Each structure stands twice: as structure tokens, then as C-alpha cells.
């Protein structure tokens, strides 16, 4: 009996060895995608029972074409299996994707798209693999190239999926009538990623007519569209409401800062506006000062609530400035605290300690202005005698306040 059991054990062991060898050959030997793997047939013939996990791992795909296609998409385009599952409605047959899909990425590479950009596009919209690159993709890419758009702007499925003749060209022609030049179209579109999918007749023209009805000149409309192209997707009643609100705040359409106020009102919700007003008031900014500051520099309402808090506390507690005085020059609130205001304060502090500038200097006046002006007046001018100003301007010296500064 023991001898019989030993022989049976050896037979089973030999069968397992032959099965493993056959599995190895099948893994490394290509076979027809629709043919059943030979090692499965062998396993059935030998009547060996495999663990459930092993059977699940080697079970054939009910739709064998999916395996080949998925491998291609993952290897060539970076498309994850999850993204493939989200787009089950597509004809994922390997023949179509291998013949047509391979040409899509090659066409994108020809126009300067990096592999990373191509992978991003395909993950966002696998349907791009089914677009005929010669009939659809290439004309679209050539059209945008003729307008001077960089490749990076085109990494948007909203552009590559929409019809060139039905959406994009009519939209560009409409914008050209407002903005005048392709350079202006590029600038306006760079600020809003969905600029070329607006419907010119259903969306853009009604918005344009509403702006004209409210007294905006063609020049003002052009400037408004240039800085906030999203105005052309607004309903006429929304445009009317924004203009009414701005007039109530003292920014009529005749004011040169009206377009910036419009941009602000379009960019934030009413609830956000009210929260920011309450925040400014809680930091001891009077209603009158806030209103005047908004009329002077509307973008102070686009600053995040955390940044409003940090900046005003810095002016009040670290610089010992009267906030009423700060609000008279509200542009300073729009400057970056870490990248602009603090490095400039450190430079001024170094120069005060060295006796190069008066301790009673008007800090706000010194802090205002562009980087070139400040650098020439306070950094380059003294860099030879006081190397620390260069270190300070580069953010390498910590700001410790203006000690003994005259009020």
C-alpha cells in the first residue's frame, strides 16, 4: 500500500513539473489572441485541481480582444485599466485601435506633443484614439499653429474633441471681430481654457449685444473680453446684474477701472464677496476705506481670505502701519507677502541699520513699484558697499522688524 501511494505521489509530482514547464513555454511563446492557452487544455487532460486563486489568474478574458487592446493602451498611451473601463462604450477592438490609434499618438508627436502630454490627453479622452489623424486631428493642429498657439495650450480635450468647422473656426472668427488680432485672441484664450467651445450665435452674440445695450463702447468691450473672455458666455440678465452692482459701488461703465471691477464680480460668488467684506471689516478696515480701495484696485477682492488676513496683520503688527493709510494704496495688498513685501522690507531694514536710508522713510512708498525700480533704487545702488542687500533681496536673511524706526 505504501509503495502504491509513493508511486501515485511521484506521478502527481511529475505531472506538476510538466504543467509548470508548459506554462513557462506558453508565457514566453506568442500565440493567437483568440486561441485557448495550450497549458489550460493540458491541465484539464491531466485532471489536476488548481487552487481557486490560480484558476482565476489564468482564466481567459471573456473578450480576448480587450487584453491585447488594454496592453497597447497602457504601454503606448498611459491609459489605465480604470480609464478603459470608464469608456466601455468605445469599440475597443485591437484591430481598430492598433491601426488607427497608433497613428493618433504619432501625429501628436509630429506636432510637438511630449509623451507625457499625449498620455494625459488619452487618459482624459480615450476617444482621441479613434479620431482619424489625417482628416480631423491634423487640420485642427495646423489651424491652431497658424494662429500661433503653443502646443501646451492644445493639451485640452475640449479643443481636440470639438469640431473645427462647426465650433472652433466660427468662434475664432467671432473673437477676431472683437479683439482684432490673433495675438489678442491668444492672450484672451490663455486665461480661459474653454474659449473655443462657446456657441457664437447662442451664447456670444447675445452677450455682446447686452454689453452694447448697457453703453459699453467697442473699445471697452474689446478690453473686457481680452482680460475676461468668460464674459461672452454670460446670459444677458447676469451681465445686467453685474453692471448694476458695479454702478452701486461707484464703478460706472465710463470709469477706466470698470473692466477690472467686472472681472472681479464675474470671478467670485456673492457669498464669497460678503465673507471678504466681513473679513476686512473685522480687521478694522472701515466701510468707506474698503469701498474707496475697491474702486482704486478692484482685484483686492480676488485675494484669498487667508492672504487678506496675513497681509493686513503684517502691515498692522509687524510694520506698525495704520490700515487706513494702507487702504489708500491698495495695490500693495495684491503683492505677494513672501516673494515681494518681506524681501523688500529686509532690504530696507539692512539699509536703515547701515545708515544709508532714513529711519523715518515712508515704508509704503518704498515698497510700491515694480521689481526693476526697487532693485535699481535699493539693491543695485548699494550692492557694492553692502553685499547683505543682495542676500536680503534673495530671501536669505530673516526679517526681524524695523527696530527703533521713527514713526
Describe the structure.
The protein is an all-alpha fold. Among the domains are: 2-60; 64-161, no CATH class; 335-407, no CATH class. It is 64% helix and 0% strand. It has 24 helices and no strands. Helix 7 (103-110) runs parallel beside helix 9 (133-147) and helix 21 packs parallel to helix 23. The longest helix is centred in the first third of the chain and has 27 residues, at 2-28. The protein is globular.
- Find the count of extended strands (DSSP E, 2+ residues): 0
Q: What value does the Rg take, in angstroms? A: 33 Å
- Overall shape: globular
Oligomer: single chain
Beta percentage is under 5%
- Let me know the largest β-sheet: none
Q: Provide the low-confidence segments as ranges.
A: 22-70, 89-101
Helix coverage percent:
55-70%
- Helix/strand structural class: mainly alpha
Mean pLDDT comes to 79
Cα(first) to Cα(last) distance is 108 Å
Number of DSSP helices?
Answer: 24
Keywords: Transcription, Transcription regulation, Transcription termination, Transit peptide
InterPro entries: MTERF (IPR003690), MTERF_sf (IPR038538)
GO biological process, one term: DNA-templated transcription termination
GO molecular function: nucleic acid binding
